[in-house]
Structures are given as structure tokens and as C-alpha cells.
Design a protein that fits this description.
The protein has two helices and no strands. By secondary structure, it is an all-alpha fold. The longest helix has 15 residues.
Length: 79
């Protein structure tokens, strides 16, 4: 087995890190998704499909945004 040269104290690695690195931030839990089925007039669906392609938006994202906007405009008071 080869013999290695001794390493001076100032070049020795510490036995354990001086500081413990912070833990990685926890990822937010994904929001559960549920399927929704509906029908639309054919001309409206064609316009929607074209707009989604032009703006590079997924259908589920556009629908979620539309529903959020509608709900904000139509609040429900359950009291």
C-alpha cells in the first residue's frame, strides 16, 4: 500500500461541518384536481381552441381562471 505524506493541521478537514445547512424549503402540496365534464356550443369551443393555441394556454388553466373570475363576480353569502 502506498505511503501518503502527512497533511498539516491547517489543511485538515473538520470532523463535521461548522454550520448545518438549512433544510430545503418544503414544497407546497399540490391542490387535488377533479374532472369536470360539460358541453359548449360548437362555435364557442372552436374560438376557445384557437385562443388557447394562440396564447399557449392549457384548457384546464383557462377554465380555472374563468371560474375564479366568475366566482369573484358572484360571491355567495352562506350566513
Amino acid at each position: 500500500m502506498p505511503r501518503y505524506q502527512d497533511v498539516s493541521e491547517d489543511k485538515q478537514l473538520p470532523e463535521r461541518p461548522a454550520t448545518v445547512p438549512d433544510a430545503a424549503p418544503a414544497r407546497p402540496q399540490p391542490v387535488p384536481q377533479v374532472p369536470v365534464t360539460t358541453t359548449l356550443p360548437a362555435p364557442l369551443r372552436r374560438r376557445l381552441t384557437l385562443a388557447l393555441a394562440v396564447h399557449d394556454v392549457k384548457l384546464k388553466d383557462a377554465i380555472a381562471e374563468a371560474v375564479e373570475t366568475w366566482l369573484e363576480a358572484h360571491p355567495v353569502n352562506l350566513e
